[in-house]
Amino acid sequence: MRKLGVLDLNRISTDEFKKVDKMPLVVVLDNVRSLYNVGSVFRTSDAFLVNSIYLCGITSVPPNAEIHKTALGAEFSVDWKYFERTQDAVEALKAEGYFVYSVEQVEGSVMLPELKLEEGKKYAVVMGNEVKGVQQEVVDMSDGCIELPQYGTKHSLNVSVTTGIVIWNFFTQIGHK
Asked: Residue 6's pLDDT band (boundaries 50, 70, 90)?
């Protein structure tokens, strides 16, 4: 087997990315402090045609060298908006007809493998701070909560890893066909 080079992969340009149909998913970062996590979310969002990213609170915004280090230019392809308060982002999404999930361990959460998405519906997922998770007020505003089942000794995963798993699940159900 021969490894494929960059030219073999036939990737689209940033301009082409802007024009292609996106998955009806907005990723909301609720006070994510690590710039590398933010960059990683941009890169994963580019890979799976996420509609946009909402950066909230203390979450840094592009342009930023540390975000670029992990985004590798995806901060230029994926649309993003900044909100001072995550609550305002959730209100705006709901006003636009989005079904908002927080990804958090709560009573009554839906385990990710059991999540069933509807074709034609618009979704948003709120990803929380690396230490505190999604703010309780944001959880309260959400239409539902998603939880990732875990079987080891740790109670959580890195936020960018969790985001990648969630995006992949959404992509396999409602992504670009």
From this structure: confident
Torsion of CA 15, 19, 20, 25, to 10 degrees: 100
CB atoms within 10 A of CB 50: 26
Q: Could you tell me the fold of the domain covering 13-174?
A: Alpha/beta knot (3.40.1280)
Residue (of 168, 169, 135) closest to 44 by Cα position: 168
Report domain extents, the chain: 13-174
Among residues 53, 55, 142, which one has the least CA distance to residue 90? 142
User: In this structure, is the dihedral angle defined by the CA atoms of residues 88, 91, 93 and 98, taken in order, positive or negative?
Assistant: positive
What is the structure's pLDDT at 176? 67
% of the chain surpassing 70 pLDDT: 99
d(CA 130, CA 119): 31
Residues 135 and 58: their CA atoms lie apart, in Å, by 13
Radius of gyration of the chain (CA): 16
pLDDT band at 158 (very low <50, low <70, confident <90, very high): very high
Q: Per residue in 29-54, pLDDT tens?
A: 999 999 999 999 999 999 999 999 99
Using H for helix, E for strand and C for coil, what is the string for 23-66? EEEEEEEECCCCHHHHHHHHHHHHHCCEEEEEEECCCCCCCCHH
Q: What is the pTM of this model?
A: 0.97
